[in-house]
Every structure is written in C-alpha cells, then in structure tokens.
Amino acid sequence: MTVAAALAAADLALQRGIARWHGAGAPPAAVVREAAAEQRIELRMARDPRLARGVLGKLPRTLARDVGDDVTALRDLLLLAPHEKGPPIRLGPALPVVRLKSLYLEGERRSGVAWQVLAAVNYVESDFGRLRESSVDGAQGPMQFMPATWAEYGRGDVHDPRSAILAAARFLRAAGAPARERAALLRYNPSSLYVDAVERYAGRIRRNPASLLVFYARSPLVR
C-alpha cells in the first residue's frame, strides 16, 4: 500500500469512528489507533517535504487540504522547537473534550475570541492539558502562561483549565482579537511559526468542528 493510500484509509476509518463516538466519554481504542496511524504518516511528511508533495498530489482535494494544513503546522512546530526529543517528562489526563469545548465557547462568549482559536492554542501549548511540564522559559499550565502575564490576565490557578482558557481569551482580546487575530497570537507567542500552526489548526476546526475530536484523539507520545 502506498503512503497516500495508507493515509486515506486511516482517515476514512478515523472519520467513521469519530462519527460514532461524537466526543462522549474517552475516545474509543479504535479511534485512538487510527488517529495515531494518521498522525505518524503526517509526521513523516512534515519531516520530508518531497514525500509530502507526492502524497498530497494523490489525495482527494478536501483531504489534501486538511492534511496539508496538518503537515505544515507540524513542520512549523518542529522548526520552532527542534531541541525537543522523546515524550515529555510528565503527562496527565485531559478534561473530556465536551467539557473543553464548553470552556472554549465560554471564552468566546466573554471575549469575542473564536472558540476554535482557543482550542488550537490549547492543543499546541499542552495537547489539551496532557503535557504537564513548564516550558524552558517558565510558562505554566494548559495555556502556558508566564508568571508576569498570568498576574495580569489570570484569575485563580494557572493549572486549572477553565481559569487558563478564560485568561487566554482575555489576553487575546486585549491584544486585538478577534479583529486582529494573527497580531494577537503573535503577542501570545512572538513567532510566526507558532501563529501559522495555531491558525492552521483553528482553520481546520472552523471548516469542520469534528476536527477537534481528531486532534483530541491524537497522542502526545507520537513524535
């Protein structure tokens, strides 16, 4: 089986599993398995642009767009943190995805910042709270706040998902979102690679909200 065929098969099985799951409870084992299979192929493509071009050219248009965004976002993040190898030191469970989405929607109601952007930031920063390490610069919690920034925008515990998500919404609103979304994200993390990755993931969720379930089913151990 070619890489393109393997990717298309994994995505088809994943989408069928997502449709049956709907985000209620933990992801079924079959969904996690297919999400990991797709994730591994996309990671190979992110590390091999020639392979990526060949595979994308053989995929149906909608799938090629989604995979292209994933691969480019992964490449951005690999360039942003090339020193990171292996799994993080500490992992923990994420809140149920239905609960997380309710927090993103609360953040949007309070700030006007798109819930899809809050979800993408949460995914990039901590894999929805599964990654429990502080950054090398000292950022903490599921939305990775520096202490000084938390002192200005945070309320409560930086490690509490609701407090962190609402603080991120307040920060991004103060930084210009939703009207100047990219500029606000650049203030959140001053890297164009970071902004591009977040915007690509947010774009996927905007096009198809079920993409949130796809990202949630992926594993921080696949790298």
Give the percentage of residues in beta strands: under 5%
CATH class of the largest domain: Mainly Alpha
Q: What structural class do you assign from the helix and strand content?
A: mainly alpha
Q: How is the biggest beta sheet arranged?
A: none
Q: Poorly predicted ranges (pLDDT <50, ≥5 residues)?
A: none
The CATH topology of the largest domain comes to Lysozyme
Task: Return the string of H and E elements.
Answer: HHHHHHHHHHH
Query: Cα distance, first to last residue?
Result: 23 Å
Number of strands: 0
Number of helices in the DSSP assignment: 11
Descriptive notes:
- The protein has 223 residues and is an all-alpha fold.
- The chain has two domains: 3-80, no CATH class; 97-207, Lysozyme (Orthogonal Bundle).
- It is built from eleven helices and no strands.
- The protein has helices at 3-21, 29-47, 49-56, 61-80, 97-111, 115-126, 147-153, 161-174, 181-188, 192-207, 211-217.
- Helix 2 (29-47) packs across helix 3.
- The longest helix is centred in the first third of the chain and has 20 residues, at 61-80.
- The protein is globular.
- The model has no long low-confidence stretch (mean pLDDT 94).
Task: Give a short overview.
This protein has helices spanning 3-21, 29-47, 49-56, 61-80, 97-111, 115-126, 147-153, 161-174, 181-188, 192-207, 211-217. It is mostly helical. It has two domains: 3-80, no CATH class; 97-207, Lysozyme.
